[in-house]
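Notebook, p. 212. Picked up where the previous page left off. The plan for this session was modest: take the two constructs that came back from the sequencing core last week, fold each one, and keep the raw output in the notebook itself so nobody has to go hunting through shared drives later. Recording the first one now, exactly as returned: residue sequence, then the structure token string.
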Amino acid sequence: MADYELVLNYDKCTGCRICETACSVHHGLGANPERAMIRIVKLEGEADVVSIPVNCMRCEDAPCEAICPVGAISTNPTTGARQVDKEKCIGCSACVYICPFGAALLDRSVGNVFICDLCDGDPLCARLCPFGALQYIRSDEVSAKLKRARADKLLDFLKLSSVPSE
């Protein structure tokens, strides 16, 4: 298990997209947020717009890793991040479809999937986030209560935003 976690603070995200641009540049993909390993999703409610960073949640029993027919996805033992072996990946998108968070993405220009690799233990998105929406902190500092409160807040928003307007 990794000693650090990338924590997403939804209520602090302003939607500036600095994380997406930094990610794509850092990974040699140009200043192209569409090719970033983190995504900012904007959800519009009746009264406001909420920006939500979407990233690999490093599932304990990762469905992306389990479904890969060629074994191209593995877990980095140091960081806990999923690694995609570009030589093995056949671009079938099975991991893209099964990821419950939408964090596995297919780069059609090269025919490979990419998943956040946590920048080998020093995620640039967290270092450059000006509002603290992304933080890379020690696992023992992340309280289960705080995680639960954030998840409940997100679920409440999603429930409100899915109510059809009359």
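Okay, moving on. Second construct, recorded in the same format:
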Amino acid sequence: MRLRFIWVGKTRNEHLRALQVDYLDRLKHFTRCDVVEIRDGHDRDSSESEGKRILEKLNQTSFACLLDVGGQSLSSVKLAERVTSWQSETRKDISFIIGGANGVSAAVAARADYRLSLSLLTFTHEMARVILLEQLYRAYMITSGFPYQK
């Protein structure tokens, strides 16, 4: 299985970028990972233009998991179970989508197979990326029986 991360914009904060790289390197011990950075829109209709670019990068057969404040809230253990479930369904590609500052377009939302909420709290997009990567790494550690999750 391959995890693909599609997000809008680059991570400009060097400390958060270092954490992203660290967790991506850790995740690569369990599964293949790709990051696709979409250019952020600077116009009024940025979510629409960003949405088109997101959909262009999303494989037709990919399972799309949209990070959405209104999505399903899961504990770390439940996320681990969900990832295991997706793997057992022999999904080859899971794409995690993090939209831009104005959210995602209706087309991207409609394409989502699953909506995941990291928290009811509001995070910067750069922080959300790190939290997602860390939680996925934690999920693999939980399913592998390693003590990291404690």
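Notes on construct two before I forget. Residues 1 and 87 are 7 Å apart (CA to CA).
Flagging for discussion at group meeting.
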